[in-house]
Design a protein that fits this description.
With 289 residues, this protein is mainly alpha-helical. The protein has helices spanning 2-42, 46-49, 51-86, 96-114, 116-138, 146-159, 162-202, 205-208, 217-251, 257-286.
C-alpha cells in the first residue's frame, strides 16, 4: 500500500514537473514569437499592410476629399492674389515681381496637391527604413534560448515538493495568461496606429491645399507633424523592443524560478504600458496637436 501511494505521488510529481515545464517553455515561445512579429508589422507601409484598405482610402480621397481640397486651394489662391495686389500701396506699387511671386506660389501649391499621396507615402517609406534599420540591431538579440533556461531549472523542479510545484504551476499559468493578453494588446496598439494612418491619409488633400497661405498653412504644418509623429512611432516601438529584449536577456540569469516568472510578468506589463504611450511621446516630440 505504501508503495502504491509512493508511486502515485511520484506520478503526480512528474506530471506537475512536465506541466510546469510546458507552460514555462510556452511563455518564452510566445515572447519570442510576438517580439519577432512586431518588428515586421511596424516596418510595413499602409499600402503593404493592406492593399485593399489602401485602395478604398485612396478612392475615397480622390473622389470625395480632392474636390473639397480644390475649392479650398482656389479660395486661398484668390485670397493671396487679392492680398498681393492690395497691400502694395493700394495697387500703386504693383510690379512684375509681385505676379511672378504669386505664380510661383500657385505652382508650388498645385504641385503639392497633385502629388499629395507620393509625399505622404514618402514619409512612411522613411518610417519603414527606420524600423528595418532598427530591426537589424535589435531582432538578433530578442530570441531567448528556452531549452537552456529550462535545463538550468530542471534540477530545481525535481527537488520541489508537490505543493510547491502546484503553486508554481499556478504562477506560471498566471504569467502565461498575462503574456498572451499583452500580445493581444500589442496587436491592438499596432492595429490602432495603422488605422490612424489610414484616417490621416484619407483627408490628406485638404491640409496640403492650405500651404499657400500663412494663416491656413498652420493646418498643413500640423498635419505633416502628425504624419511624422506616426512615422517615428514605429521607431519608438522598436526602441522599446530593444529595451525589452535586453531586460529579458538579463532576467533569464535569475537563480530562482519564482523570481524569474515574476520578473517576466512585470517586464511584460511595463512593455505593454509603454507601447500605449509611444503615440503621445512621438506627438510631444514633434509638437503635433
Amino acid at each position: 500500500m505504501d508503495k502504491i501511494i509512493e508511486r502515485l505521488f511520484e506520478a503526480i510529481h512528474e506530471f506537475l514537473v512536465e506541466v510546469v515545464g510546458g507552460i514555462f517553455v510556452g511563455i518564452f515561445d510566445d515572447v519570442n514569437e510576438r517580439v519577432g512579429s512586431i518588428a515586421a508589422d511596424v516596418a510595413q507601409t499602409p499600402q503593404e499592410w493592406n492593399a485593399n484598405v489602401w485602395d478604398i482610402v485612396r478612392t475615397l480621397s480622390d473622389t470625395v476629399i480632392m474636390p473639397i481640397a480644390g475649392l479650398i486651394i482656389s479660395y486661398i489662391l484668390c485670397y493671396e492674389l487679392i492680398t498681393a495686389v492690395t497691400e502694395k500701396n493700394n495697387m500703386n506699387d504693383i510690379g512684375v515681381g509681385t505676379f511672378l511671386k504669386y505664380i510661383l506660389k500657385a505652382c508650388v501649391a498645385v504641385f503639392l496637391l497633385s502629388h499629395v499621396f507620393e509625399i505622404t507615402m514618402a514619409i512612411f517609406d522613411v518610417s519603414r527604413w527606420l524600423a528595418e534599420q532598427s530591426a537589424v540591431v535589435i531582432t538578433g538579440e530578442t530570441s531567448v534560448d528556452v531549452t537552456s533556461i529550462f535545463l538550468g531549472f530542471s534540477d530545481q523542479l525535481e527537488a520541489m515538493g508537490i505543493g510547491e510545484l502546484f503553486l508554481l504551476m499556478i504562477e506560471a499559468l498566471v504569467v502565461s495568461l498575462i503574456v498572451k493578453i499583452i500580445a493581444v494588446l500589442v496587436t491592438v496598439v499596432l492595429l490602432g496606429r495603422m488605422i490612424e494612418i489610414f484616417l490621416y491619409c484619407s483627408v490628406a488633400p485638404i491640409p496640403f491645399a492650405t500651404f499657400a497661405n500663412k494663416e491656413w498653412g498652420t493646418i498643413g504644418n500640423n498635419y505633416v507633424k502628425s504624419l511624422l509623429a506616426l512615422a517615428f512611432q514605429a521607431f519608438f516601438i522598436m526602441v522599446i523592443l530593444g529595451i525589452y529584449s535586453a531586460l529579458i536577456q538579463s532576467v533569464v540569469s535569475a537563480d530562482n524560478i519564482h523570481a524569474l516568472l515574476l520578473k517576466i510578468g512585470a517586464i511584460s506589463v511595463v512593455l505593454c504600458l509603454t507601447l500605449f504611450k509611444t503615440s503621445s511621446i512621438s506627438r510631444s516630440i514633434f509638437n503635433a496637436h
